[in-house]
Amino acid sequence: MGLMRVLVIGGTRLSGPDIVRELLERDHLPAVLHRGEHEPKLPGRVQHFHGDAADAELLRYARREFQPTALIHMWAMHPSDIETTVDVFGEALERFVMINSGDVYAAFEAFESRRPTYQPSPIAEDAPLRSCPYKYEGGSYDKVGAERAALQAWDGRKLPSVIVRYPGVYGFGPVREWYWVKRIRDGRRRIALPNGGLNIFHRGFAANLAHAVCLALERAEPGSVYNAGDESQFNVRQLTEMIADIAGHEWEEVSVPGESWPWGTPYSLYQGHLLYDLTRIKEELGYRDIVSPQEALRVTVEYLSCNKPGFVSQIFPKGFDYAAEDAVMDRFRV
Predict the structure, then answer these.
(1) Where would I find the H helices in 90-142?
(2) Span 113-153, pLDDT tens digits
(3) How far is it, in rounded angstroms, from Cα 86 to Cα 196?
(4) Are 183 and 329 spatial neighbours (Cβ–Cβ below 8 Å)?
């Protein structure tokens, strides 16, 4: 496939800058449309459009000025976002990639509501999806509805849609690994591991996810859906030990019942694992990690050791309540 003019909507944090850089390396011409709250370090030749991704007039302006032939949407939260994309860009696009996440799966919905899940593991792309929009403090979003709208738009030949479902993202920025690194920075010598730290929550390094997105852009057939993430995964106990080793830190790991420490690690789950099946993206698109998970974790920890990321939405507000954690560990320490 030849050069594409790729408008990336969102894309200023985590995997977004990596997507833009890889597009440049693959001889495409990217531009970014974002709110301007976070200015990524990108080459000067990358054009920026500032504003709300839901603003149809801004999108029309970006289309006139940049004339994209492809679009990567990292912020399609509702069906209306897809409808606006079809209205503004539809007939002009050769490719459309929507970035979604694993929270669309029914298994994820069960974990967050603390119910057992009976879905097979690893989770394939055709697994059951969640039954209702994702609710959070202050609102909700409907990425299942947005995904369905994108695929229906392809059925009507209005939008050449490909879906890429992300796992938990880590890298340079406000990521879940801050849960461990902040404890190290604060001098904590003990850490509570719910259910022994045996849960596995699928993770993906930002650069690896960017590579998956670029492969989907170039090689995927419209109408396709792909899980993305690192090929190798580690349970919470392994992550705890690896992070301490990278940081030159020692701590005592105390296994506690999951229900006794409900705010415990952002990769801990109520029951079981959240592991995605990567067979499709590996066989159809030739995906392989471009950065090993071990190296990816090392650079993430080293970044967080020197940079305070601020608010990390996936860490519960009481995640750093050390007095409460100490009380739980004192109770269950053998």
Answers:
(1) 106-112
(2) 888 778 888 999 999 999 888 777 677 889 999 999 999 99
(3) 48
(4) no
User: Dihedral of the CA atoms 101, 197, 170, 79 (nearest 10)?
Assistant: 10
pLDDT tens readout for residues 158-168? 999 999 999 99
**Where are the chain's structural domains?**
5-332
Q: Which residues of 168-179 are buried (b: 16+ CB within 10 A; e: fewer)?
A: bbbbbbbbbbbb
Task: For residues 19 and 214, give the distance between their C-alpha atoms in angstroms, rounded to a whole number.
Answer: 7
- The token duo for 34 is 């974002």
The DSSP letter of residue 105 is B
In a 3-state reduction of DSSP, which class is residue 97?
strand
Give me 249's structure tokens: 């830190």
Q: Which CATH number fits domain 5-332: 2.160.20.10, 3.20.20.140, 2.40.128.490, 3.40.50.720?
A: 3.40.50.720
Six token digits for residue 217: 């852009």
Place of tokens 């912020």: 75
